[in-house]
């Protein structure tokens, strides 16, 4: 399990005003809490936080250092401004080595399905994360799922996953990925062809109508 360091400092002020001042100073208001850790408000430098996020791969444990004290934490929640998408608040969860964690693990789908390569099917990913319970030492960074052997109509479910020392909390019958027949693509193509044919017919009828009117005008002039 990869561990990434993050430096922070304690903050004693609460409320929207102090939080706004922290953001103006380039810091993200945050809180750290856990089963064996008293809740504490902190501030993390925006640059430091974004650097830590870039260094993260899959599920990551962070070495959070606050005023000289370091604790292993995971990122529990992250809030953003709905307009600017700037991060406005972060929740860290201080882990206990002897107590199971409930967390989401990302799924990585590996390989090119034969149903896509040889049969023209469509790879449809239904679920990209699964909820699990495990001790911190058993947290997998990600779950690799090989889809190369899947043909059209084949699928993989949560029950098909095997992760050592992990209790699966996501429903076992949930579908992770399925290979669908390209019926949607065929339907869209057929509709496009029909629309093009209809447009050509309408254009031809309009042209024929115009020629007929011209002929009628010429006949009237002769009279």
Describe the structure.
The strands form three sheets. The protein has a six-stranded mixed β-barrel with strand order 1-3-2-6-5-4. Strand 5 and strand 6 form a beta hairpin. It starts with a strand and ends with a helix. The chain contains four helices and 13 strands. The radius of gyration is 30 Å and the shape is flat. The longest helix is centred in the C-terminal third of the chain and has 40 residues. 28% of the residues lie in helices and 39% in strands. It is α+β, with helices and mostly antiparallel strands and 223 residues long. The mean pLDDT is 84.
Written as H for each helix and E for each strand, in order along the chain, the element string is EHEEHEEEEHEEEEEEH
Helix content: 25-40%
Low-confidence stretches: none
Shape: flat
Structural class by helix and strand composition: alpha+beta
Between the first and last Cα atoms, what is the distance in angstroms? 96 Å
Number of strands: 13
Neighbour order of strands in the largest sheet: 1-3-2-6-5-4
Our estimate of the beta-strand percent is 35-45%
Summarize the main sheet.
Answer: 6 strands, mixed, barrel
What is the mean predicted local confidence, pLDDT? 84
How many helices? The count is 4
Rg measurement, Å: 30 Å
What's the gist of this structure?
The protein is α+β, with helices and mostly antiparallel strands and 223 residues long. The protein is built from four helices and 13 strands. Strand 2 (27-34) and strand 3 (37-45) form a beta hairpin.
Topology:
Layout: E1 3-10, H1 16-24, E2 27-34, E3 37-45, H2 46-54, E4 61-66, E5 69-80, E6 87-94, E7 101-110, H3 114-117, E8 122-125, E9 129-134, E10 143-146, E11 155-157, E12 167-168, E13 175-180, H4 183-222
Parallel strand pairs: 1-4, 2-6, 7-10
Antiparallel strand pairs: 1-3, 2-3, 4-5, 5-6, 7-9, 8-13, 9-12, 11-13
